[in-house]
Amino acid sequence: xxxxxxxxxxxxxxxxxxxxxxxxxxxxxxxxxxxxxxxxxxxxxxxxxxxxxxxxxxxxxxxxxxxxxxxxxxxxxxxxxxxxxxxxxxxxxxxxxxxxxxxxxxxxxxxxxxxxxxxxxxxxxxxxxxxxxxxxxxxxxxxxxxxxxxxxxxxxxxxxxxxxxxxxxxxxxxxxxxxxxxxxxxxxxxxxxxxxxxxxxxxxxxxxxxxxxxxxxxxxxxxxxxxxxxxxxxxxxxxxxxxxxxxxxxxxxxxxxxxxxxxxxxxxxxxxxxxxxxxxxxxxxxxxxxxxxxxxxxxxxxxxxxxxxxxxxxxxxxxxxxxxxxxxxxxxxxxxxxxxxxxxxxxxxxxxxxxxxxxxxxxxxxxxxxxxxxxxxxxxxxxxxxxxxxxxxxxxxxxxxxxxxxxxxxxxxxxxxx
Length: 418
Ligand SMILES: [Zn+2]
Hints:
Elements: E1 7-15, E2 21-28, E3 34-36, E4 45-48, E5 52-56, E6 58-63, H1 80-92, H2 97-113, E7 116-122, H3 126-136, E8 139-146, H4 157-170, E9 176-182, H5 190-203, E10 208-211, H6 215-225, H7 229-235, E11 244-247, H8 253-261, E12 265-268, H9 270-275, H10 284-290, E13 293-296, H11 310-325, H12 333-341, E14 347-351, H13 367-373, E15 378-383, E16 386-390, E17 393-394, H14 399-414
Parallel strand pairs: 1-4, 1-5, 6-7, 7-8, 8-9, 10-11, 11-12, 12-13
Antiparallel strand pairs: 1-2, 2-3, 5-14, 14-15, 15-16, 16-17
Helix pairs in contact: 2-3, 2-14, 4-5, 11-12, 12-13
């Protein structure tokens, strides 16, 4: 094994997809696989892996990347509906592709710095976001927003769907893909949801939707349709394999079984639910019992309590599940790490030469616990055999420049608002 795009880490610790630990010399291949190294393969880089921990990268399944523009205490203290209607939507009414470009660059800088290589996003101007993500060398599934209220990018759902039809038809990039982001049952009428579903089917794509985030959403949906949100979405055949259901907090057990049957993804966003005081979050044991594919996401960095830092999101997922269920056995470090990195094809190297990553335990068994509960610095990141970050420096962007750009663009975005 080995080719000139593989990378060798010598004398290191590698955690595999199942959270098991391996010690020695390893090759990281361009296709994302790994193998033991015997030391004589052709490689693009031969690195000293001492004091490094190699793991899969984090995968963030629910974001609004360019909302980095609204980070991090933007209208802090508002509940969800007021926060959307009084703060977020009026500000976003002025958003342009340029805002999105610099917002996504800043978001990606934070993702790479904190060890995430993939975001499943929902935000305006997905084609602009896609170009930025592609240039930075990471991965994304970018959901173009579809809604029955006028959006800054589109006057109606029909033109938003037409743009997605075009993007899905013409995209041939394996790292950057597109989804259809039907915002929620409260912003999308039945006709729009059905058209989005049909468009997804046409392109073998998926829809991304906020589901049962608050009790108000559930009560309103029940009043309007006589059904709870998941039941309602299933009644119009909206739930397809891979449909991304963000939050999925206020969901009954029979709805969870429905989600498992339809093979959708439920995305746990614990810090956003806590920050907006939604009063509840997804119950992981119930979802696991139903057999639903659960992922983890930060939400946009304005509502998230972790920014876009999946190390923090993973910690809070573990804490709130244990707290809510009075059960300290839920989500030990290995399990929360598997949940937060599920399906990752990429690699991160974390700095072990850090007090937060020590002690390592008698049998070096505390690495993942230290990483999740104390945090560590991401030194290297590899995506498709390409170095995105090396020795604590991101290679595909200049972080200082991104900080300057972000502050300048935010100044113009808010037009005098702090
Ligand atoms: Zn969201």
